[in-house]
Design goal:
185 residues, alpha+beta, Gyrase A, domain 2, 2 domains, 57% helix, two-stranded antiparallel sheet, Topoisomerase I, Chain A, domain 4
Length: 185
């Protein structure tokens, strides 16, 4: 029973950090990375579809992304979605592919992006702490129902706290790495 609670705790904390990694991947660093726009929702045929399901996204140069749609009829919708996104990117369409030049980041924009990264890291930490709270409550219920002893409860609390500390530290490292990437000129 306690092992189930602990494994579920670790699983959810791991997922919180994976979500943080995915979220930070979409933050621009001044370098062209396909992950920047791959998950961008595109409104086509009455549904919202991620860009990577509508065509190939490549980075042939350090400051250029190229989108090659599989269906030429979706080009307009893809261009429109990229331009409307909060990424502040412009597009060049030659009828076959969409080229997206990635401009260099200004110093002020870099600082703003670092603040965004810190906010995302903090959200991830809150999610990890919420997982800890929920599973400690599960342990309390098990203790009240006399399914575990007080010693087992205490040991499980300590293990959950160790997991929490480890995953919060990992979230900090993920954020720090992204900050360094953004501030790199």
């Amino acid at each position: 029973m306690i092992d189930d609670v602990l494994s579920e705790t670790e699983d959810k904390m791991k997922k919180a950090n994976e979500a943080l990694r995915r979220e930070l991947q979409s933050i621009r660093t001044g370098r062209a990375v396909p992950g920047l726009i791959e998950k961008l929702p595109i409104e086509v045929y009455g549904t919202s579809t991620p860009l990577n399901q509508l065509g190939n996204v490549t980075a042939p140069e350090a400051r250029l992304l190229v989108v090659q749609p599989w269906d030429k009829n979706t080009m307009g919708a893809i261009e429109k979605a990229i331009q409307k996104s909060e990424l502040n990117l412009t597009t060049n369409n030659d009828g076959k592919v969409i080229r997206i030049p990635i401009p260099a980041l200004t110093e002020q924009r870099r600082k703003d992006l670092v603040k965004v990264v810190k906010g995302k890291v903090e959200e991830s930490k809150v999610a990890i702490r919420n997982v800890r709270r929920d599973h400690i409550n599960d342990l309390k219920e098990l203790l009240q129902e006399k399914l575990i002893s007080e010693d087992e409860d205490k040991r499980a609390h300590e293990k959950i706290q160790q997991l929490t500390d480890r995953y919060i530290q990992e979230a900090d490292q993920i954020g720090h790495h992204k900050e360094q990437e953004i501030l790199e000129v």
